[in-house]
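User: Could you go from structure to sequence for me? I need the amino acid at each position, not a summary. C-alpha cells:
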C-alpha cells in the first residue's frame, strides 16, 4: 500500500512539473512577441555603386603650387590665412638711407624668413595701438620661420629701445650703417626729389647757410649720422651681442659676404650666396636674380640709387672732420672699424 501511494505521488509531481514548464514557456513567448512588435524593424542599407562613384568625383586634392607657377614663394599663398602671425624675432632698426631696404629685400629670399613688406612704425608712431595691432600687420609664418620687420626710424626714437625690450628682451637687432657724410647727402637727395624748391645742400649744412659757420647739428640729415649717440640708448636695454652692424658700403659691392654674416646672426642655414646677385651698373646697386614674389630678375625701386648732387670739396672735408670723433666713438662701441675716417 505504501509503495502504491509513493508512485502516485511521484507521478503527480512529474505532471505538475510539465504543466509548470508549459505555462512558463507560453507566457515568455507571448511577452517576447509583444515587445518585438513595439520595436521598429531595422532595414539593411543597400549601397548603390553609382552613388559611390558620384560622391568620389566630388573629392579633389588642392595642390600648393598651381600648374603655371614657377616661383617657390607661391607656396605661401595657401597659408596666408592658414598660418599664424607672430611678433618679429628680429628688427632692422636703422639707419635711414643706410641700405635697410636692400638688406630686407636680400634676406627675405631666404625660405625661413618672412618679413613685413612696409615699414610699420610701431615703436615710434603706433605703439599706443598695442601689440595685437602690431601682430596683425605681420605676415603669416610656417613652423620654423622667423618674422622680421624694418623701420629705420626706430634707431633714433628715444622710446624705442625700452618698448622693444618690453616686447621681447631677446630681440635681435640689425643696424645698417654707412659713411655719415654720404648718408647725409643721400638723405638730402631723397627730400629734394619731393621738394624741388629746397635750398642747396651746402646752404643747409651750415648755420645761416655760410660755409665758414658751424655745422647745423639740428638739421636731420646731419644729426642722424652721429650714430654713437643713438647706439648708447639701445645699449642700456640690449647687450652688444644682440646687435649686428651691417656695412652699407659692403652691402653694395659684396652683398653675399654681408648676407653670410646676417644668416649666421639669425641662426639661419647658409642659403643666400653670390649666385643670387648681379650688379646693375646703371643703378650702381646689386640686384637679385630672383626674389620673393618675383620669378624674374629684380632690382630695388626707382627711388633707390638716385644720382647725388655734386657737393663742394671743402664742404665734404668739413663734414668729414666733423664726424670723425663720432665715428671713432662708434668704432669703439661696436668693435668694428668701418673706415670712414
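Assistant: Here is the amino acid at each position, in order:
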Amino acid at each position: 500500500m505504501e509503495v502504491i501511494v509513493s508512485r502516485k505521488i511521484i507521478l503527480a509531481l512529474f505532471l505538475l512539473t510539465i504543466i509548470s514548464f508549459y505555462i512558463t514557456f507560453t507566457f515568455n513567448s507571448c511577452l517576447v512577441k509583444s515587445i518585438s512588435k513595439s520595436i521598429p524593424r531595422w532595414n539593411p542599407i543597400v549601397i548603390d555603386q553609382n552613388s559611390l562613384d558620384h560622391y568620389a568625383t566630388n573629392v579633389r586634392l588642392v595642390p600648393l603650387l598651381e600648374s603655371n607657377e614657377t616661383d617657390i614663394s607661391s607656396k605661401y599663398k595657401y597659408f596666408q590665412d592658414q598660418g599664424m602671425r607672430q611678433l618679429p624675432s628680429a628688427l632692422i632698426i636703422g639707419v635711414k638711407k643706410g641700405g635697410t631696404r636692400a638688406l630686407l629685400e636680400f634676406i627675405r629670399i631666404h625660405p625661413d624668413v618672412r618679413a613685413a613688406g612696409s615699414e610699420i612704425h610701431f615703436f615710434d608712431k603706433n605703439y599706443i595701438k598695442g601689440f595685437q595691432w602690431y601682430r596683425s600687420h605681420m605676415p603669416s609664418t610656417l613652423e620654423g620661420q622667423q618674422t622680421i620687420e624694418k623701420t629705420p626710424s626706430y634707431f633714433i626714437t628715444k622710446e624705442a629701445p625700452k618698448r622693444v625690450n618690453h616686447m621681447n628682451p631677446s630681440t635681435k637687432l640689425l643696424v645698417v650703417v654707412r659713411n655719415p657724410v654720404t648718408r647725409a647727402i643721400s638723405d638730402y637727395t631723397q627730400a629734394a626729389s619731393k621738394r624741388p624748391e629746397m635750398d642747396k645742400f651746402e646752404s643747409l649744412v651750415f648755420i645761416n647757410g655760410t660755409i665758414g659757420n658751424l655745422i647745423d647739428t639740428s638739421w636731420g640729415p646731419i644729426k642722424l649720422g652721429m650714430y654713437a649717440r643713438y647706439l648708447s640708448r639701445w645699449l642700456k636695454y640690449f647687450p652688444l651681442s644682440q646687435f649686428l652692424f651691417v656695412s652699407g658700403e659692403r652691402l653694395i659691392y659684396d652683398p653675399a659676404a654681408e648676407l653670410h654674416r646676417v644668416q649666421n646672426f639669425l641662426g639661419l642655414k647658409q642659403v643666400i650666396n653670390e649666385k643670387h646677385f648681379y650688379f646693375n651698373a646703371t643703378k650702381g646697386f646689386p640686384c637679385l636674380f630672383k626674389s620673393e614674389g618675383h620669378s624674374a630678375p629684380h632690382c630695388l625701386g626707382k627711388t633707390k640709387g638716385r644720382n647725388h648732387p655734386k657737393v663742394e670739396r671743402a664742404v665734404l672735408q668739413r663734414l668729414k672732420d666733423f664726424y670723425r670723433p663720432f665715428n671713432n666713438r662708434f668704432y669703439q662701441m661696436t668693435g668694428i672699424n668701418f673706415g670712414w675716417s
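One structural detail worth keeping in mind: The longest helix spans residues 2-38.
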